[in-house]
Design brief:
By secondary structure, the chain is mainly beta. The protein folds into three domains: 2-97; 133-193, 2,3-Dihydroxybiphenyl 1,2-Dioxygenase, domain 1 (Roll), CATH 3.10.180; 196-272, 2,3-Dihydroxybiphenyl 1,2-Dioxygenase, domain 1, CATH 3.10.180.10. Helix content is 12%, strand content 37%. It contains three helices and 16 strands. Strands 1, 2, 3, 4, 5, 6 and 7 form a seven-stranded antiparallel sheet that branches. A four-stranded mixed sheet has the order 8-11-10-9. The protein has a three-stranded mixed sheet with strand order 12-16-15.
Length: 272
Amino acid sequence: MTTLHVTLLGGLRETAAVPLRAAEAAHGTRSLRRFALELHVPHERQPALDAELRAAAAPDGTYLQGTDAMWRVVEGRTVVAHGPRAGIYRYRVEIEEVADATRADTRAVGEGASAEAGELPTGESPDVMQLKLAVLVLPVSDVDRAKSFYEAVGFRLDADHAVDASYRVVHMTPPGSACSILFGTGVTTAVPGSVRGLHLVVSDIERACRELAARGVVTGGIFHDTSGVFHRSTDEKRVGGPDPQRRDYHSYAEFSDPDGNVWVLQEVPARG
């Protein structure tokens, strides 16, 4: 028996874990750790936990975050039962360490990002504490409207849990992303619509704009910035159309959610 710290239901939780026979990593250099967990959750939080576990079991799902690794739920190994007390759900879950926990999608947006999945940036010690961006909180005024909008964009709904009228949490993940968004009631004091410049990397910006338009999401037109690096927050130096050389990180398009939170599409074919 050992203890693992895994993020579940919005917080880092300490849970008892039984080591299982490790699975061989694809690269053959070491074994991937595997554990069996037993989780107890009240009835009212069961749907949210169930959604998180199902997402972590999906092939393209959201991994569970631990202090020293990312974990996937071994598909088909989740058992749900009532007890030990009335109103309490008991889960027996088998989890396995993810070999490429850092993922290519967690790299920086800037042109200097060069580390491949599973590799540390050049010069970084493996002993350095890893800080992996997991959740961005969005301020919205109408939770159901925001939820419908992001579902239309294509974000996966991971959890929608309301404690009461004053506290509701909605957790959604962009397709292919290791980072999620969270919005709801009582989750932030920021002004609705005040977030700017959240970047979504796409392999083909023209196709992405067409697909968003088909979903009813309006983009402001593709542009590039003649400054030569990233893009300015104003129209200064912006030119309509994609980068003429179609260089990575140089073509953009923007769209806003119903509250005015602004997202930026950024074309990076090499990461598509």
